[in-house]
Please model this.
Amino acid sequence: MRTNAKALTGVIMLVVFVLLAVIGPWIAPFDPSMRSNALLQPPSSMHWFGTTHLGQDIFSQVLAGTRSVVFVGAVAGVVATVLSVLVGITAGYLSGTASEGLSALSNVFLVIPALPLIIIITSSLPETSNLTIALVIGLTSWAWNARVLRAQTLSLRRRDYVEAARANGESTWRIILFEILPNLYAVIASGFVGTVLFAVISEITLAFIGVSDAGGWNWGTVLYWAQSQQALAQGAWWWFVPAGLAIALLGTSLSLVNFGIDEYVNPRLRTRFSMRGVRMRVGFTPVLAKETS
Amino acid sequence: MSYLLKRLAFYLLTAWAAVTINFFVPRMIPGDPVQALITKQRGQMTSEAVRSLYVLFGLDKNESLASQYFSYLGQLLRGDLGMSFTFFPSPVSDVISDGLPWTVGLVGITTVIGFLLGTAAGAVVGWRRGTWADSLIPVTTFVSSIPYFWLGLVAIAVLTGPGSFFPASGAYEIGLVPNWDWQFIGSTVQHGLLPGFTILVSSVSGWILSMRNMMVTVSSDDYVTVAHAKGLPERRVMLAYAARNALLPNVSGFALALGFIVGGTLLVEIVFSYPGLGLQLFQAVGAKDYPLLQGIFLVITLSVLLANLLADVAYLALDPRTRREA
Model:
């Protein structure tokens, strides 16, 4: 079997991040909020990523912040995925007003700009914690996956094997759970990964504008302090570069996993290695195209 | 025509949903934010302004929820979004109309350029699958995972500073009065280049990826093979056959992605202190200026709906099927 190098790289990177989320706060060399006399120091052997204007260790802040980022991403991803499966499959399998209504609901949520919506909700909440932020993000970002799942379900429910199951007198629930759902696993997984990425970026963005878990650290709060203390004007590049790179690496690992899933679902997207170096006219392989479609 | 009417009805539904969300969200705010403001301003507020804020926050306990809702709708229809707490005593509508042109100019121009550039690049990369062009994919993946605002921070750190051509903040030279002379326009362009470029770099990679995937899918379709077999020039097959059809999902994707892009670009404004809605949103969050927050949310949503309508018109022009069904 051909291993998918892209997806494997993504999974390995992801495992490292999850591991850091679990042990990060314990292996951090310093308390991330602890002040010291080493004010605004560039990276050194003592402080790997330098220090803040209060002498806090940025390496520890980034390490400790991983937990909140992974937590919010995972919780929001699970909430949004469960909602999108419920809404998407129901809207796709049923017909008539209920289906139209659910589909209109997901389209409304798709068109309303998510980030401003998340901002007004979280800043009006009595208290913001990682959990409430994750829930708000999860409850507002299920619509895209619901739409994809609805389209897939629509195309599955008229297939012969589903018709056969229906003719056999299987209950609707059994058909949905055992005939339709297994064919949607890849789509659901890819939707989950995409939502986690969106949730992570949203959480960091929220923290960057000052809406975050009180007292906790995440990569966005690091950037918030860097911005509000004029790190740029003081030339303190070490203050915002590590957190940004961490975001980009986590994002890349999620995208790589998603590429793997996409190529699994749609074999046409796979790069054919035999084509490397030879400039061939795309589409001149009718026999192969027959096989894959 | 019925296609457009259907879309229009959907946008009206969405606008109503946004208004309704806006009605219910402030009812979660603990305490009495209006009282806090009145105390702060020590009686400088007119009773009419106080009344409109109470309608906005639903603190008028004597009214039922339904009648609160209708007085809220009536207030919105008159264009009354309440008083801004931070820019007191300016009404929210005045504050927003100061910021809106800057945001529409910056975001509008860069989003359209980003879409066109990304789609063109994606078409080429998708057509040349399996060649050097594929090595662009990991790069674009990495870039599209970076939050817009962080890229802006890096751009400021690297490209601005004493003696640099690029200013680090603002939308025009301090001291200039906004008008239509060349000095002001030049200064505006100079200030807009860096934030615009940041948005462009972040948004373009998404379009490249989606167009590339559509191109790859389309280019193994039978009609493309037939076009090749007829001996049509490569360029013509790529542009008039493959790209023409791969473009359609990208255009409908444009409408859906707009909400995400707008969210990201608001943050770029914050980083560059660009005086648009994003910066105002930032100030409103910091000062707990709820009326301004809600007003900005409403205006952004309505603008996105309008842009979606325009994208629909473009789709109508590109896809003859939607016209025939009508």
Observations:
- Chain B has a mean pLDDT of 81.
- The longest helix of chain B spans residues 182-219.
